[in-house]
Design goal:
Distance between the termini: 31 Å
Number of helices: 4
Strand content: under 5%
Number of strands: 0
Helix content: 55-70%
Radius of gyration: 14 Å
Length: about 100
């Protein structure tokens, strides 16, 4: 059974099909399509999205400089998905604590 966070996963400014995702890898593959387009056509918009999503800039720069150029979009998508999952887990943790 896929983790609950994969149900109706949404990322601000990235169009995702309305569906439940079966795995983290499936989600990364879907996000990587948008990332690929943005890397090729609108790096400024990609940087803006990464900033709003609070993706670590140092990790992003490391991916750009050290990854296989044909896989950069997958690595950036992984950074985005992992950051969003971490934010969801943090929200869940603090929401479930009694006041």
């Amino acid at each position: 059974m896929p983790p609950a966070y994969l149900k109706s996963f949404r990322i601000q400014d990235i169009d995702l099909p309305e569906k439940d995702y079966g795995s983290r890898e499936e989600l990364i593959n879907i996000v990587s399509i948008t990332v690929f387009d943005l890397l090729a056509k609108d790096m400024e918009k990609l940087m803006s999205i990464l900033y709003r999503l609070d993706v670590d800039e140092t990790r992003f720069k490391k991916v750009l400089s050290s990854s296989d150029p044909s896989a950069v979009h997958l690595k950036v998508a992984e950074l985005i998905v992992d950051r969003e999952i971490k934010k969801m887990e943090t929200r869940k943790k603090f929401r479930s604590k009694p006041h």
